[in-house]
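[Discussion] Sanity-checking designs against the backbone

I'm trying to build intuition for which residues belong where. Below is a structure token string of 432 positions. I'd appreciate it if someone posts a full sequence so I can compare it with mine line by line.
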């Protein structure tokens, strides 16, 4: 009889995947999880690696590599974005799929985790070439997709048009209109109201929930936001308009602006609306122009990194003056940066909870598509508020009970939920 392999795990030199596996391992240890269950979660469930030839506008054949990985369907269909970027590779997609499992479990929506991508620089392709590439990709990975199997969404360099092409291609293959196959679609094709603002709104709710737990009045709170794109713009404007926070600094890739008395957001938004690339560059209001590095260490109550990854690191975490960090971006705090924040007693609401608003409204979109019944914006906002505030509350309770920081508490909750689903489904005991 063959000796059973014990504790199999993905082998990798990729730092993102290695970090993700280490985070899982820490949670497994804290939960004293059954080794067999842990071994299931250290692996991905389904992986597809495809070659994508397309004919370019000039008649040349171009070939790309694409990937779709489903990490877990223990709690429901795989859910996760599709990104187009030259750095996409299988290990990155595996790590991102694992994080999606945790994000969906952390906010308790009935999805597992998945991710996909194509190794391509989309800026070098025409719109027609991008459509051909997207349709080819959809056709190739169609066997592992499905509204009850694995549901893509937009991610880096993909958008609602990409999802419309995806949905159309899969619907053609299936021979039936299937809006539930993707989320993040245009509203006219079954997209949800409120999807555009959802991530920023979720970050705002998470920030305010933490302020309330700490007995702080949002109206007496100074906020600094890095990034003024989809997430940064929405969280900034929602915190100011709906909760009365004082926004003292914002930034983007072109500039960072600061006024300790508060920024004039109406004036800034009018500037951005007419600025090429919707950038802050050239804004001439009553502000100091500082660098992004200076913005991160400003004297403030709340800091919201909502731009890119690796912004709070071993090099600057000891200079952060915010009492609260709410992660709008994915992975804005490195492993070393996080350890320093924790040591210094700075509260950090982790990305997998704080920026889960997007996937939560994706879940609402899927529900609406399955029912062919569409909600108004107030319903979407009410349900989003309930999901984020409840999830925050649960993480806060676990953190208090187990004397953990919020990040560790969310990971613990998420891993426990996935483990419970695996156990209850009997993947292990039935030998499937
Ligand atoms: P976006 O492209 O709309 O905006 C990004 C913003 O960051 C822009 O203002 C850009 O100028 C700025 N930026 C880029 N590089 C910068 C730098 N070096 N320094 C300072 N600012 C810089 O992207 P987005 O959708 O707002 O996403 C932002 C982050 O949130 C990403 O990490 C993304 O993965 C994460 N996120 C987004 C969503 C969503 O629904 N959009 C959901 C979950 C997580």
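Best answer:
Here's mine. Compare freely.
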């Amino acid at each position: 009889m063959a000796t059973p392999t014990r504790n199999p795990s993905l082998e990798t030199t990729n730092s993102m995947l290695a970090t993700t596996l280490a985070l899982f391992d820490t949670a497994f240890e804290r939960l004293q999880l059954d080794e067999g269950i842990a071994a299931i979660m250290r692996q991905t469930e389904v992986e597809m690696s495809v070659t994508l030839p397309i004919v370019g506008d000039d008649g040349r054949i171009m070939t790309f590599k694409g990937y779709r990985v489903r990490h877990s369907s223990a709690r429901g269909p795989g859910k996760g974005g599709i990104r187009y970027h030259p750095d996409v590779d299988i290990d990155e997609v595996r790590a991102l799929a694992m994080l999606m499992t945790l994000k969906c479990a952390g906010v308790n929506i009935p999805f597992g985790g998945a991710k996909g991508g194509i190794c391509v620089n989309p800026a070098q392709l025409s719109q027609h070439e991008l459509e051909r590439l997207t349709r080819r990709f959809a056709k190739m990975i169609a066997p592992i997709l499905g509204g009850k199997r694995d549901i893509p969404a937009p991610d880096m360099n993909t958008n609602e048009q990409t999802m419309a092409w995806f949905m159309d291609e899969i619907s053609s293959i299936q021979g039936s209109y299937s809006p539930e196959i993707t989320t993040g679609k245009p509203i006219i094709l079954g997209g949800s109201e409120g999807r555009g603002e959802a991530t920023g709104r979720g970050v705002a709710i998470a920030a305010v929930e933490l302020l309330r737990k700490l007995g702080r009045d949002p109206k007496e709170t100074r906020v600094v936001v890095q990034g003024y794109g989809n997430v940064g713009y929405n969280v900034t404007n929602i915190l100011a308009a709906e909760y009365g926070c004082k926004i003292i600094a914002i930034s983007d890739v072109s500039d960072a602006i600061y006024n300790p008395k508060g920024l004039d957001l109406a004036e800034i938004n009018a500037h951005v609306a007419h600025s090429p690339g919707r950038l802050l560059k050239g804004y001439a209001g009553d502000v100091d122009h500082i660098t992004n590095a200076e913005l991160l260490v400003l004297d403030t109550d709340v800091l919201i990194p909502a731009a890119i990854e690796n912004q709070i690191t071993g090099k600057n975490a000891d200079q952060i003056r915010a009492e609260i960090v709410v992660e709008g971006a994915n992975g804005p705090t490195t492993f070393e940066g996080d350890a320093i924040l924790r040591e210094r007693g700075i509260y950090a609401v982790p990305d997998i909870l704080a920026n889960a608003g997007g996937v939560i409204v994706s879940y609402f979109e899927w529900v609406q598509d399955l029912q062919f019944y569409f909600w108004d914006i107030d319903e979407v906002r009410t349900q989003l508020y309930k999901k984020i505030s409840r999830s925050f509350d649960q993480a806060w309770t676990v953190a208090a009970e187990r004397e953990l920081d919020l990040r560790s508490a969310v990971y613990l909750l998420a891993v426990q939920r996935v483990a419970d689903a695996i156990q209850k489904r009997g993947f292990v005991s039935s030998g499937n």
